[in-house]
Amino acid sequence: MTDVPVPYLVVDRRPETADTVTLRLEPVAEPLADFAPGQFAMVHCFGRGEIPVSVSSVQATGGLAHTIRAVGAVSAGLCEARAGDVLGLRGPYGTGWELERARGRDVVVVAGGIGLAPLRPLILRALAGPAAYGRVNVLIGARTPADLIDHKEIERWPTTYTGVTVDRPDDAWRGDVGLVTGLLDRADFAPADSWAFVCGPEPMIRATARDLADRGLRPDRIRVSLERNMRCATGHCGHCQLGPVLLCRDGPVVAWDRTEALLAVREL
Amino acid sequence: MPPSIALRMNHALPAEHRDRLLHVAREASFPPGTRLFEEGGHADRFWIIRDGTFALDLHVPGRRAPVVETLGIGDLVGWSWLFEPYVWQLGGETVTPVRAYEFDAVAVRLMCLSDPEFGRAVEHWVGRVLSHRLHAARTRLLDLYGPYGSGGAR
């Protein structure tokens, strides 16, 4: 891990939606240490600043992919990057999903919006080793069909169950409409023998984790990825503090039994 | 118990009331694309889905009626039959083949009138379903998946 940005070359830029792109990056020189799915990098847009972004793909070459939505000055600058541009990266930071702890058990992945991006490498790993895991379920909620990232790839995932629901359908949409928790009834898993991995807006995470726990999943087997205002990413500045938890160091992936009570505190 | 399961009739109604209700149910099957009711029509029936997916939609002039919510296994289809003036608030259509228990609304309302305890149980159940759907609709109003729905801009 380095606290100085390391140059990475943008080798591919793939628009996902109207405001979201996936940038594939290769190291210009020495790569950063290996990232685990769920970990994040501080991605530096020269002249604008840096933001935390979870990895959406991890390559054996040391290459990475980041899926970024333009919501502010830095992320908009990153989304404008073109192949051949150089960005600065530091990391890897934080905790990963630790999918390997779910070996032999059913897997439930619940993603909301761009929250699918950090879960993508986990899903691909679970599907790459079908003998290692039980039934793999992927549940996705999106704003509209046009806001669905990785939509062509999703259709090819050989999961036990893949469900996609949207808040606002267009005229061509023939799928589900409603909250992503509504898909849990259709997923195929044994709650007492499952692990869940959840990423999305915080109210969606809370509702999903509570629903899963109500179904009988052990709270310590429900992993959620949380977001706060990460600045230093090294556990020093305290901007990302959630009670006793520093999300840049102790997160972003944390167990539900550790965070449920903290997320109920308004001041946090 | 998660809300979606707690709201199912077999959990939400005490066994004696559930059995009474099921006694007047009729098993029904519908192919995909079957419109079961139209917005503004008389709400004379309701259903509990046993299998399949059902879409609720709202008429908007000049375009295909947009789907506002989809329902699945165990879900109650229709609550307008319980409240005057017994007029459907939405339209509804099967998305997939649907198997359902179908109920005659007048018969169930008469059962509710003749047995106040049964009536309270049914009203409580439908009220909880309504409350759950209102909460879901309000949550979707927050546009949580929108650009600024999940946190501060950065």
UniProtKB/TrEMBL annotation, chain A:
It comes from the Bacteria. Its cofactor is [2Fe-2S] cluster. GO terms for molecular function: 2 iron, 2 sulfur cluster binding; flavin adenine dinucleotide binding; metal ion binding; oxidoreductase activity. Keywords: 2Fe-2S, Iron, Iron-sulfur, Metal-binding. One of its GO terms (biological process) is pyrimidine nucleotide biosynthetic process. [2Fe-2S] cluster binds at residues 232, 237, 240, 248. PROSITE patterns: FAD_FR. Pfam families: DHODB_Fe-S_bind (PF10418), NAD_binding_1 (PF00175). Residues 3-99 form the FAD-binding FR-type domain. The keyword Glycoprotein does not apply. Binds 1 [2Fe-2S] cluster per subunit. This is Oxidoreductase. It comes from Streptomyces dysideae. The lineage of its organism: Bacteria, Bacillati, Actinomycetota, Actinomycetes, Kitasatosporales.
UniProtKB/TrEMBL annotation, chain B:
This is Regulator. PROSITE patterns: CNMP_BINDING_3. It comes from Streptomyces dysideae. Residues 9-78 form the Cyclic nucleotide-binding domain. It comes from the Bacteria.
